[in-house]
Amino acid sequence: AQSVTQLGSHVSVSEGALVLLRCNYSSSVPPYLFWYVQYPNQGLQLLLKYTSAATLVKGINGFEAEFKKSETSFHLTKPSAHMSDAAEYFCAVKSGGNQGGKLIFGQGTELSVKP
Amino acid sequence: EAGVTQFPSHSVIEKGQTVTLRCDPISGHDNLYWYRRVMGKEIKFLLHFVKESKQDESGMPNNRFLAERTGGTYSTLKVQPAELEDSGVYFCASSSWTSESYEQYFGPGTRLTVT
User: Fold this and answer.
1) What is the pLDDT of residues B6-59, one digit of tens each?
2) Which among B33, B103, B106 is the nearest to A43, CB-wise?
3) Other CB atoms closer than 10 Å to residue A71's CB: what's the count?
4) What is the CB neighbour count within 10 angstroms for residue A27?
5) B45:A102 CB<8 A
6) Torsion on CA atoms A80, A18, A44, B12, rounded to nearest 10
7) How far is B62 from chain A (nearest CA, A)?
8) pLDDT tens digits, one per residue of A12-63
9) C-beta separation of B60 from A106 below 8 A
10) What one-character DSSP code corresponds to residue B101?
11) φ, ψ (nearest 5 deg) of residue A44
């Protein structure tokens, strides 16, 4: 069975500091991994995705994530936090091998950015 | 191109009443998913339609929940009768078979409160 664990339900950083949101997955097959972001009062927006093409994935708004098979991790990073990055972030793995499989989400990490 | 839309955005009902949530996927997307996030918990899969057929309904909590997708276009999720534990945010997502990354596009969600 596949699963996702996000370490830390709340992360607080200062503006300009490094953002690191942790995600570990469990999967018996090569995974498809995603990071979604939910800004206040909005739906989930795809930040980036890993589909086995490259281990370092770049997404929108300056975020990137590195797939590390040996560590079963897919941590999300951004070199310099902006106030506008304050939101909740979700890591997800797509189940099964077919195109239409469901997403299995982590618990979510709420990011706060201090001025 | 319009995104995934959901109606209503908020619904407050009393225990025992019936509520129907609606989702309009992105035009041309054959895959439609329902997810739910109960307060403080992770986003959980409810079911997956391929066109008008239920591909996977393993996440439906019980027989008080009924999902339909008439003609393979929009979908409705009916809760009858509603219980207190049904409160949460219900998300709809859609994806296309032609998407090489199998990414799902989410709607803004319907916040359901059962009192």
Assistant:
1) 999 999 999 999 999 999 999 999 999 999 999 888 999 999 999 999 999 999
2) B106
3) 10
4) 17
5) yes
6) -110
7) 19
8) 999 999 999 999 999 877 788 999 999 988 889 999 998 877 889 999 999 9
9) no
10) T
11) -80, 135
Here the tokens at position B28 are 């041309």
Query: How far, CA to CA in Å, does A46 sit from each of A15, A98, B65, B87?
Result: 23, 20, 28, 25
Task: List, as own/partner pairs, every contact residues A87-90 make where C-beta atoms lie below 8 angstroms and the sequence separation is at least 24, other chains included.
Answer: A87/A37, A87/A38, A87/A39, A87/A40, A87/A111, A88/A37, A88/A38, A89/A6, A89/A21, A89/A35, A89/A36, A89/A37, A89/A38, A89/A47, A90/A6, A90/A35, A90/A36, A90/A37, A90/A38, A90/A44, A90/B43
Provide the token pair at A94. 């797509």
